[in-house]
Prior knowledge:
The protein is 73% helix and 0% strand. It has four helices and no strands.
Amino acid sequence: xxxxxxxxxxxxxxxxxxxxxxxxxxxxxxxxxxxxxxxxxxxxxxxxxxxxxxxxxxxxxxxxxxxxxxxxxxxxxxxxxxxxxxxxxxxxxxxxxxxxxxxx
Length: 104
């Protein structure tokens, strides 16, 4: 009987985890394509900020170098943080993640 209870608990946990993951993916897919691309390249492909600046540069027709590259990498880091904050807020509203305690 206890093995059956453990199996049911494991299955329920697995199912809840899959549902949560599916809802998180839906939140990510609701983002604009540019934001999805930034997330995919940084998180999934683990590109460095400078590589991201080269790939997603602000439309420059020439390759970014020096200060331009540094500025673009910094801009993308800020944008990435904004996207993460939006996703976290949406996930909290959906009850997918616990709210973080105030750090103020």
